[in-house]
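Entry 14. Structure prediction run on the chain below.
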Amino acid sequence: MTRLSRILVLLTWMLTACARPSGPRPPDIAYGKDPCAECGMIINDPRFAAAYVTRDGQARLFDDIGDMVVHYRKHLEDVAAFYVHDHETRAWIDATQAFFVHAPSIPSPMGYGLAAFSDRSRAEAFARAHGGEVRDWTRILQETQPPHGSHSHGP
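Output returned:
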């Protein structure tokens, strides 16, 4: 193998190693500007913001985890990935792997009372402090309902 060939192989390897993973990625949200796809309200608080990305690459942004669930159940789009923010770190996490706390005392934007965590122990501590219950993604999808007394703000 010539010196040039070795350099080309090394460069190809380095570029491959540094390449971004393929597949969906959490979308960017312009807080204070982007509207919620379900209710139309402006998304302001990253602790409660959520999103999903369809298989054709379309991002749907939400101001409340509950709005994302309700919107998904209404439209049944072909979703590649659901994302929520960790309530404490504000980092995007895969919703299917998250631990959710449901408590009426959680002041989420649309009143669903949901907060997400990447770590079960932090979710359990938060649930104890707020009189809530820890739930997984399957249960969130099945049981989330609009809060009592709320009305649809959607299009």
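Residues 7-20, 151-155 have pLDDT under 50 and may be disordered.
Filed with the rest of this week's runs.
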